[in-house]
Amino acid sequence: MLSTSPNNFPSPVDLPFNRASLNENLQLLTPDQDPGGDGIWLLLQGLSLLTVTTATGQQLPQGKLPAVKTDTTPIYIGQWHGKPCRILTIPDTTTLPPQFNPQPLRSTEPNLPIEIISLAGIGLMIQHWEQTSQHCGCCGTPMERLPHEWGKKCPSCSELHYPRIHPCVIGLIIKGDEVLLARKAEWLDGRYSLVAGFVEFGECLEEAMARETLEETGIKIKNIRYLGSQSWPFPSQLMCGFVADYAGGEIELRDKELEDAKWCKLDQMPTLPPMRSIARHIIERAEEFMQ
Ligand SMILES: [Zn+2]
Q: Strand 237-248 and strand 166-175: pairing?
């Protein structure tokens, strides 16, 4: 039976989307290892997972290939609780039969346990890889699977391609009894979070954290310390979390990526990201980094 996600995570490793959340119930395998037969279905439509209502609550569909309109073929990803688990991508334009209930995976308050959210997150990353690796990036030839791997090989130019997971940095900047919070225009009204961004060529994580903070807010930082990381399947990031101290500068929105940035005291915080994000996990720990 599916129950609501908890709101408390002892360490970054325990956050949703990290494999620890699966409690070893997923044996990740590869499509060429599909044993055939009935199974458990990850039906993905956009950023929603489709569940079915049963006598014991919302469940992943089980059994034969679900009767829902799609022109894609199922992708076997491994064994979930000992049963074959496959992803089936449903086009956004497909009208769902009434038995399927879309569960938005980016919802602030998802109505699913973290085990299912995290399994669906792995499904989203695999789906993204499958959609973006159909043709060789070097010569455009349709690619072939490597046995027992998620990597693929181009039969024409022999180039090997492997799943791409993009490292990102995200960090809490401390200045006395205040923390630096930032806001993008497209976020929910009033929501603030931490400075974040993608790692660039030739950067280590700490350098990326310092550059992103300076570029986005005009603030220089020092004492950059790593705290932990979270897999983030929208579509395929690894969020690397840091805390750092203020080293100089005034807030100045330099690259227009942010709508606002400001220093906030812990008892005057605006709306924050959900507890299941590493951003919030780090913000919740802010007091221990203030001296
Ligand atoms: Zn090629």
A: parallel
Are 272 and 11 spatial neighbours (Cβ–Cβ below 8 Å)?
no
Tens of pLDDT, residue by residue over 133-172, are 999 999 999 999 999 999 999 999 999 999 999 999 999 9
Ligand 1 centre to CA of 147 (Å) is 18
Take residue 118 and report the two structure tokens written for it: 């995290």
Compute, in angstroms, the gap from residue 141 CA to the centroid of ligand 1. 5
For residue 235, is the peptide bond before it cis, meaning its omega torsion is within 30 degrees of 0?
A: yes
In a domain, 7, yes or no: no
Range of the domain at 149: 135-163
Q: What is the pTM of this model?
A: 0.93
3-state secondary structure of 206: helix
Handedness of CA 170, 17, 265, 263 (dihedral sign): positive
CA dist 104 and 73 (Å) reads 22
Ligand 1 (ion): which residues have CB within 5 A?
A: 136, 138-139, 141, 154, 156-157, 159
Candidates 82, 47, 52, 84; CA nearest to 66 is 52
Which amino acid, one-letter code, is at 89? T
Please indicate whether residue 106 or residue 82 has the higher confidence score (pLDDT): 82
Cβ atoms 175, 247 nearer than 8 A = no
**Other CB atoms closer than 10 Å to residue 141's CB: what's the count?**
13
CATH code assigned at 185: 3.90.79.10
Residue 132 Cα to ligand 1 midpoint, Å, equals 14
The total number of structural domains in the chain stands at 3
Phi, psi of 179 (to 5 degrees): -125, 150
CATH number at residue 117: 3.90.79
Examine the domain organization and report whether 182 and 142 are in the same domain.
no
The alpha carbon of 237 and the centre of ligand 1 are apart by a number of angstroms equal to 25
